Amino acid sequence: xxxxxxxxxxxxxxxxxxxxxxxxxxxxxxxxxxxxxxxxxxxxxxxxxxxxxxxxxxxxxxxxxxxxxxxxxxxxxxxxxxxxxxxxxxxxxxxxxxxxxxxxxxxxxxxxxxxxxxxxxx
Length: 122
Prior knowledge:
The chain is an alpha+beta fold. It has four helices and four strands, in the order αβββααβα.
């Protein structure tokens, strides 16, 4: 197994561990965060019905003007506040945070803090 395949396997295993634990313990919608080297996205997912209730990403054209010239952490804060707004519009007040494979620090933590400030409870 080469290094890239091993890295992907480990990331998938970590993400599945986090998601399985969330699904076992609660029935609340899940705020799932996906992070890459350049971008970050978040979506609120209702696992019971299998539907995405709200989503925001740094690649969306509606956020392009507000994200221009910002650092990656500042962009994550913007995405966090926007996902909180969209989730409230969809009628979601309380969620469970799903960090996936990423550790809870840096951009992921900035997104979570901004979502909390925006009114989501988790």
